[in-house]
Amino acid sequence: MSTVAELPGPPMRTATVATQSRAGVDGFADVYAAHHAEALRIAYLLCGDPHRAEDAVAEAFVKVYRRWSKGGIAQPRAYLRRAVVNEVNSRFRRLAVERREAAKRSGDDRGARGDDEQVVDADAMFSALQRLPERQRTAIVLRYYADLTEQDTAAAMDISVGTVKSSVSRGLARMRALLGEEAV
Length: 184
Known about the structure:
Helix content is 70%, strand content 0%.
């Protein structure tokens, strides 16, 4: 596969191929033929990726055609060149935002804990849970581990919602005490 700089096409011209008076599909086809290779080279030099360059040029030509069809481009080469630069810059900005958002979601492992610590914590939690009275243990397990609502927990235990709330509250307080944490 040839690189973008080696793509066949007409030599670069500085004169405008089509003017506003030749507006239309045929006129735009001439603009496309005359300036596509140059636009592709510019996009490739800006972004360094042939696939992104092709996408940026295609989007730029779509935007230029929309303007062209309204009959408002006096210098299509300059207009297209600016559209390509804007499209490449826009793609870089979107990519930067995507990377920034991905970094927020994935984090940087500063608070990550080793497997050994996680096993010790799970064992301590299980031990504290086993030392709770049955109703408190059941309420906490259904509410937090099974992720049930208070209403669903009450229905599963056949008790009132208020009893679920108090059982969970008392059970969590007891677990904090058993685990050596202060009650909040």
